[in-house]
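[Discussion] Sanity-checking designs against the backbone

I'm trying to build intuition for which residues belong where. Below is a structure token string of 284 positions. I'd appreciate it if someone posts a full sequence so I can compare it with mine line by line.
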């Protein structure tokens, strides 16, 4: 999956540091990121050495925020706006979902999660005062009332509903992602992940399920989620009653005739591959 970047090592511990010339820089403009992409789909973020030549020193110092490191390389975000330069152009954040530069895609996804959190945490939700960054950990603090704000992570389930050699697959309604997916939904307050599985399946396709088994999880920073993958089996009638507001399509597909396959990137697609190979029978 996209976070599986071994032998590279991702380190999300916060450090109150400054960039050096080979540090990588994220620059976001609305829902786009400044990036370079060659003919072979290799992705490159601007390094600080390239970046600082184009910016006023006081400006970049006050607007630069440490995000994380990868193999000891620091990744920072510039909170202001930068015009494209050289071979760097702005491109949609959601367009980067590929294997050639998987570690860069993962970095972009995680940085986007942090970027949106920092934007949403500039002011205290309790008293409205401007917040400040804590010096030791990734936390915004209100100097007036003492309120503290940590990055938010939303748990959600991905559900593979199976019936013998069939699997239920669907397409979302009114979303950017138009390919086949599995059923999914956010966990609500006071609800276990297993209860979310039952509720989402019933709400989206009107089916009952049994034998719910946890598979694995995946951080999905584009939406600020922690995805929890589950396999389960159909219980009773297999007639689908699709929620047209949520799903554009939903149907049963045989193991040897699935319209989508493992892409090495997402938990959803990995779970499709597990079913296609018949390995879901070994998940307990």
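Best answer:
Here's mine. Compare freely.
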């Amino acid at each position: 999956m996209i976070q599986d970047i071994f032998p590279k090592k991702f380190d999300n511990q916060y450090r109150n540091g400054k960039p050096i010339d080979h540090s990588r820089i994220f620059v976001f403009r609305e829902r786009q990121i400044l990036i370079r992409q060659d003919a072979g789909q290799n992705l490159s973020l601007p390094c600080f050495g390239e970046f600082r030549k184009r910016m006023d020193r006081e400006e970049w110092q006050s607007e630069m925020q440490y995000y994380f490191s990868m193999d000891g390389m620091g990744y920072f975000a510039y909170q202001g706006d930068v015009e494209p330069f050289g071979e760097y152009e702005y491109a949609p954040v959601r367009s980067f979902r590929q294997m050639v530069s998987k570690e860069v895609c993962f970095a972009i996804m995680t940085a986007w999660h942090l970027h949106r959190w920092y934007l949403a945490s500039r002011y205290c939700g309790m008293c409205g005062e401007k917040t400040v960054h804590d010096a030791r950990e990734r936390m915004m603090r209100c100097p007036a009332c003492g309120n503290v704000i940590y990055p938010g992570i939303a748990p959600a389930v991905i559900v593979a509903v199976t019936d013998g050699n069939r699997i239920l697959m669907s397409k979302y309604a009114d979303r950017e992602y138009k390919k086949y997916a599995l059923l999914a939904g956010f966990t609500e307050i006071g609800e276990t992940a297993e209860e979310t599985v039952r509720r989402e399946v019933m709400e989206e396709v009107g089916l009952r399920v049994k034998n719910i088994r946890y598979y694995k999880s995946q951080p999905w920073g584009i939406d600020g989620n922690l995805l929890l993958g589950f396999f389960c089996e159909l219980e009773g009638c297999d007639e689908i009653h699709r929620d047209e507001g949520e799903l554009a399509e939903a149907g049963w597909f045989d193991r040897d005739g699935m319209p989508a396959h493992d892409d090495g990137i997402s938990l959803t697609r990995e779970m499709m591959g597990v079913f296609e190979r018949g390995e879901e029978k070994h998940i307990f």
